[in-house]
Amino acid sequence: KAGVTQTPRYLIKTRGQQVTLSCSPISGHRSVSWYQQTPGQGLQFLFEYFSETQRNKGNFPGRFSGRQFSNSRSEMNVSTLELGDSALYLCASSLDHSYNEQFFGPGTRLTVL
Amino acid sequence: LAKTTQPISMDSYEGQEVNITCSHNNIATNDYITWYQQFPSQGPRFIIQGYKTKVTNEVASLFIPADRKSSTLSLPRVSLSDTAVYYCLVGGNRDDKIIFGKGTRLHILP
Asked: What order of strands is seen across the sheet that includes strand B61-64?
């Protein structure tokens, strides 16, 4: 079956702009989690969605938001971009919870200039 | 959510067995232990998950002592392609936030 897909794969934005990233989970998976990965901070949890509800949120400012649709597809939005938001954004899906086996997408590489 | 401690880096040679130990002193009763592997510019890939004693699959074994305060990922006969970062995670509650930490950077030498 198809894996987790993320679009776009690469994105270049300037400070102050906003960006929306998309994630399509594996069919049948209801949990979708988002992570930010940078060389300095490593892999950090952003939030988890299950059945269109945010179940958990990491320690990120309110500029980072997300949502999940009825088909389990998810989007995350970052408003008022800062240089420090440059990172690899990873989406992962699992059947019911992120502490079970997660399947990761290829990521979206965001560069903020 | 229990925090984990792993060695920052390890080196080994092709064909050797590699054991990476993770400490999780505050593990909760219903927490599972999960290991992931990550290559550069890719998302992590699930390796193995366990609750107690020993779990084995086609790529690795996971050893968990009775007190569950640590776990050891064992990779048999490693190859150069096993060079990657390995993460140990614990969690089992609905409200758990998944914390990957810094992981262990494993470097396999020829």
From this structure: B18-23, B70-75, B61-64, B53-56
Residue A27 C-alpha, separation from nearest chain B C-alpha, in angstroms: 18
In chain B, which residues have their Cβ closer than 8 Å to the Cβ of A33?
98
A46-80: pLDDT as tens digits: 999 999 999 989 999 999 999 999 999 999 999 99
Residues 6+ away with beta carbon under 8 Å from A71: none
- Structure tokens of A102? 């997660």
Residue ranges of chain B whose pLDDT lies below 70:
1-2, 94
- Which residue on chain A is closest to B42 by alpha carbon? A106
Contact B21, B71 (CB under 8 A): yes
